[in-house]
Amino acid sequence: DIEYEQYLQDKDWTRTETDALFDLCRRFELKFLIIHDRWNNILYSDRSVEDLKERYYTICTNLEYVNIEKYKFLVNFVFINLRREQNAIRINTTSMLHMSVDEKNN
Fold first, then answer.
1. 3-class SS at 31?
2. Which of 24, 56, 83, 90 could staple 35 via S-S, CB 3.0–4.6 A?
3. Residue 82: pLDDT over 80
4. What is the gyration radius of the CA atoms in the chain, in angstroms?
5. Which long-range contacts (CB under 8 A, 24 or more apart) does 84-88 make?
6. What do you get for the CA distance between the two ends of the chain, in Å?
7. Measured between alpha carbons, how far is 63 from 58 in angstroms, rounded to an integer?
8. Distances in Å between the alpha carbon of 14 and those of 21, 46, 48?
9. Are 52 and 36 in contact (CB under 8 A)?
10. What is the arithmetic mean of pLDDT over 60-67?
11. Rounded distance, CA 82 to CA 80, Å?
12. Long-range Cβ contacts of 22-29 (<8 Å, 24+ apart)
């Protein structure tokens, strides 16, 4: 609900209409001609196939952007730690190469 209010609201679409659209998209596997045919023009505003597509894909794009922003810090954290581990392995490997045979056996 909070995510909807922050990122998905549209002055031309109600929450109920959006939920109905996504239900139809799931049921009919994004076949927008069928979705348009099943769209209830009595309960909801009359929508064209292009209106339905635009709303669906706008929401998908917004959610993708929100999720990327939410997890950007996590991705950076993982990459920083990965670089640290790679550097540690490189340093250990380099120091092993420079050790004498006697040092390696001890």
1. coil
2. 24
3. no
4. 26
5. none
6. 63
7. 9
8. 11, 13, 16
9. yes
10. 86
11. 5
12. 22/56, 22/59, 25/56
Identify which has the larger pLDDT, 65 or 23. 23
pTM above 0.85, yes or no: no
Cα(62)–Cα(72) distance, rounded to whole angstroms? 15
SS3 10: strand
Tokens of 29: 């596997």
- Comparing CA positions, the residue from 68, 46, 51 lying closest to residue 10 is 51
Q: Three-state DSSP class for 13?
A: strand
Residues 4 and 71: their CA atoms lie apart, in Å, by 18
Task: Give yes or no for a contact between 63 and 4, defined as CB atoms under 8 angstroms apart.
Answer: no
